[in-house]
Structures are given as C-alpha cells and as structure tokens.
Amino acid sequence: MIPILTPEQMRAADSAALESVGGGDVFIRRAGHAVARVARTMLGGTYGRRVLVIAGKGHNGDDGRVAAEWLTEWGASVQILDASEVAGHIIDSLVT
After folding, report:
1. Strands (DSSP E) along the chain, which ranges?
2. Which CATH class is domain 9-95?
3. What is the DSSP letter of 23?
4. d(Cα 25, Cα 36) in Å, to the nearest integer?
5. What is the pLDDT of residues 24-78, one digit of tens each?
6. What whole-number distance in Å separates Cα of residue 78 and Cα of residue 59?
7. What share of residues in the chain are helix, strand, coil (percent, to 5)?
8. How crowded is the C-beta side of 6, counted as CA atoms within 13 Å?
9. What residues does each domain of the chain span?
C-alpha cells in the first residue's frame, strides 16, 4: 500500500529532501541533469538533435531549464518555450 501524505507532511518531506543534498539549487541541478540523461537515452544521443523544452514557473520549470543546458552542452539544438505562452496559444486557438 502507498502511504498518503497530508500537505504538511509533503512539505516536511520536501524540506528534508532539499536539506539532504545541500539546498534547493543543488537539488534542481541534480534533477535537471537526471532529466537530461534520460532524454539523451530516449533520443539515442543528442548531437545534432532538435529538442523543445516546455518549462513552467517554479522548480519543475527550473529542472527543465537545467536539462536544456545539459542537452545543449551535449550537442543538441534546444529551444525553451515558457508554458504560459503555450497556454495562451491554446486558448487563442480555441477562441478563434
């Protein structure tokens, strides 16, 4: 059975995880690097590949931006699109 945490318990777990690695910046750098490694595997390599990263605000978006940095370093052509821009385009296309 998977335990369910209250919001307060989840915040405490998040704080403990951040403290265990030396803070939020370290956690984000590690998460972004992990995402980039998985993407590289899925792509069968990165050199010459084109990648679009859709990143929102907050830490998850920061993870995506860090992944984009790694993918660029490994030879991919990366574009980052702000998730709020995507949402705006979707809404515009539904209204018109």
Report:
1. 50-55, 77-82
2. alpha beta
3. S
4. 16
5. 788 889 999 999 999 999 999 999 999 999 999 888 899 999 999 999 999 999 9
6. 19
7. 65, 10, 20
8. 2
9. 9-95
